[in-house]
Queue: 2 jobs
Job 1
Amino acid sequence: MSKSKYYSLDSRKVAEATWEWLAKRGVTRSQIAELVHFLQKDYFDNLTLEECEGHIDAVLGKREVQNAVLTGIQLDILAEEGKLLPPLQEMIENDEGLYGCDEVLALSIVNVYGSIGFTNFGYVDKLKPGILKRLNDKTSADCNTFLDDIVGAIAASASSRMAHRKQAELEGRDDASLD
């Protein structure tokens, strides 16, 4: 196989694929927004799901986040299809407790948005509210070893972005560095 030295991928295609693959795995923007709302409702009066969705869109607009989402989903699918080599196949297929690569991939998403994102991620990863409960269901035929952590990380990152943005607004700043 010959590789072009002029490789280029349209970023819009990557973004579209990210949303497509989340949808194929049964994850919607509104389900993630419910997680963001769960994390932030006690801090911001009159918080709407639409506002939460805006922060999710910004998080998923980042290429490094898209890369993590696509990588994790593909690994889950390969495990469902039994296409990984042992012992990795069994570890991912069974969401092995000592296999922490799923959390590490999710933390690469959270890392973009700072320490608040880390604490929010740990919180939702432990509680498994909303969509995370279904994604973490071990009785399902679906393998979501990576996806549950990825969705939690997206919500945690959107929550962190929101918190930083709201603080900037209070201070009269337009902090575009958080996009």
Job 2
Amino acid sequence: MVTRAEAAAATRSALVRAASELLDEGGPEAVTLRAVGARAGVSRGAPYGHFEDKAHLLTQLAVDAWSSLADDVEQLRAEPGATPSTRLERALVKLIEVGRRRPHLYALMFSTPADNPEAVEAASRVENLFLAIVGGLVGEPDARRYGALLMSSAHGIAGLELSGHLAKEKWQVGGDELVHMLVSAIRSGTGTAP
């Protein structure tokens, strides 16, 4: 016998999954509470019982994306035998890969209002894990400066890839190689071992 709470959690999960699919297929414009409910196979009013409005649902998608990325970065941070440079490169590429695989979700992650406590907490978790990885390469006192440089560079790489302006034929370099070059330059500049 399924409890009421379990049924509500299953419905909410189905709504989030449906919204995620619609976002991937057509961007934020495709995500309406009516379309999400229809995709999830629930009653017309069900989405309104779980989400105040479309913005609330989209924010949930962004929060979930930040949380998933944080889980990935946390695994990278704990990866045995990986060098600080390797961890850092992999963390940056993880962020860029979200843009590559799910461009609408990636854009949503960076457009969610910064005053939403859930979104701030989820994004902060990624940032803190990322800064710990950066600190492992450059030292804790310089982690924030280098972290800002690396994060903004990764965001720029993702944006250029998404817009088609980072064509390998033109620049003779791809996004992953740029990440490697950037981390190598920072490692060399700080005199840290590979």
